[in-house]
Design a protein that fits this description.
Layout (H helix, E strand, L loop, with lengths): L5 E5 L4 H13 L4 E4 L7 H6 L8 E4 L2 E4 L1 H11 L11 H27 L3 H26 L12 H7 L2 H11 L10 H12 L10 H16 L2
Parallel strand pairs: 1-2
Antiparallel strand pairs: 1-3, 3-4
EC number: 2.5.1.18
InterPro entries: Glutathione-S-Trfase_C-like, Glutathione-S-Trfase_C_sf, Glutathione_S-Trfase, Glutathione_S-Trfase_N, GST_C, GST_C_Tau, Omega/Tau-like, Thioredoxin-like_sf
Enzyme class: transferase
Length: 227
């Protein structure tokens, strides 16, 4: 597939855009990333996603696909030359979608709230929710992985992409707050998984730099405080 037929409207800071990149990398698709600054939002973004006006957006020939999870599923169905991202079994596929939704609902919201919170008191319930998510995912990995490298088994799958796209933001949150989230004692399987995931050729070199993200996190905090 020629690069000019596949474009991703994304942002280097976005874990959701990163999901799409990882999926495309896994499938060996040649693509172009169009960086969206969001300040102001580009005409291309507003035209491509007029309903939500947010990234990521996949442009495939004349088709426009929005929402990270939907885009990843689309990629999985269109490019069948590489191992599947979603399980082939209907029950396992539904289960993977459930955990993706859980990560977006619980993990993303708690992590974002910790980043923009003003003080430790405000952060506390969000840290507790984040720790609960990690406990759940540790259980899922131990139960479903059965000693294998990824949530998806021997290869990166849907849950791996959903959670793994936040690895850099985990490091940012830990550094800003001087507090561990992924702990070797509490989450040994997740810690090992994170190292394996980050080293995979489809991921290595694509995770945002922590220092750069810390500066972006400071910008986000100021932005939320001004509202």
């Amino acid at each position: 597939m020629a690069k000019n037929n596949v474009k991703l409207l994304g942002g280097w800071f976005s874990p959701f855009a990163l999901r799409v990149q990882i999926a495309l990398n896994l499938k060996g698709v040649d693509y172009e990333v169009i960086e969206e600054t969001l300040n102001p939002k580009s005409e291309l973004l507003l035209k491509s996603n007029p309903v939500q006006k947010k990234i990521p957006v996949l442009l495939h020939a004349e088709k426009v696909i929005c929402e990270s999870a939907i885009i990843v599923e689309y990629i999985d169905e269109v490019w069948t030359n590489a191992p599947p991202i979603l399980p082939q079994n209907a029950y396992d596929r539904a289960n993977a979608r459930f955990w993706n939704a859980y990560i977006d609902e619980k993990w993303f919201t708690s992590l974002r709230s910790v980043v923009v919170a003003e003080d430790d008191e405000e952060k506390r319930p969000h840290f507790e929710q984040a720790e609960e998510v990690l406990e759940r995912l540790e259980e899922v990995l131990n139960k479903g992985g059965e000693g294998k490298a990824f949530f998806g088994g021997d290869t990166i799958g849907f849950i791996d992409i959903s959670f793994g796209s936040f690895l850099s933001w985990i490091r940012v949150t830990e550094q800003i707050n001087g507090r561990k989230l992924l702990d070797e004692t509490k989450h040994p399987s997740l810690v090992q998984w994170a190292e394996t995931f980050a080293a995979h050729p489809a991921v290595n070199g694509f995770l945002p730099e922590t220092d750069k993200l810390i500066e972006f996190a400071k910008f986000l905090k100021l932005k939320f405080a001004a509202k």
